[in-house]
From TrEMBL:
Pfam families, per database record: HxlR
Key word Lipid biosynthesis present: no
Keyword DNA-binding: yes
Signal peptide (from-to): none
Name this protein carries in UniProt: DNA-binding HxlR family transcriptional regulator
Amino acid sequence: MSSKENVAVHQLLALLESRYAIRVLWALKDGHAQTFRLLQDSVGGVTPNTLNTRLKELREADLLTHGSDGYSVTPTGADLLKRLSDIQAFAGKWSVAQAKKVK
């Protein structure tokens, strides 16, 4: 992996590690736009200030957009969510394997 690719990976992971960032994206993964209030309820436990900050960061990263219907993922955000679904499948298998090790 080139140094530019390393930097890009680190930047993306830093963004996704931000509190509630993945939960915001996950709440929008079905492709339907959500208003701020609905998104706040979907994410759960997030303060308005934190949600505003995450939305701003995710919009600046071209992962979200805001239209008349509310917030939704961009094509880039949809691509990321598709790739994250692979991680979700892996995590399920990994979790089962870990549980078997404990027994």
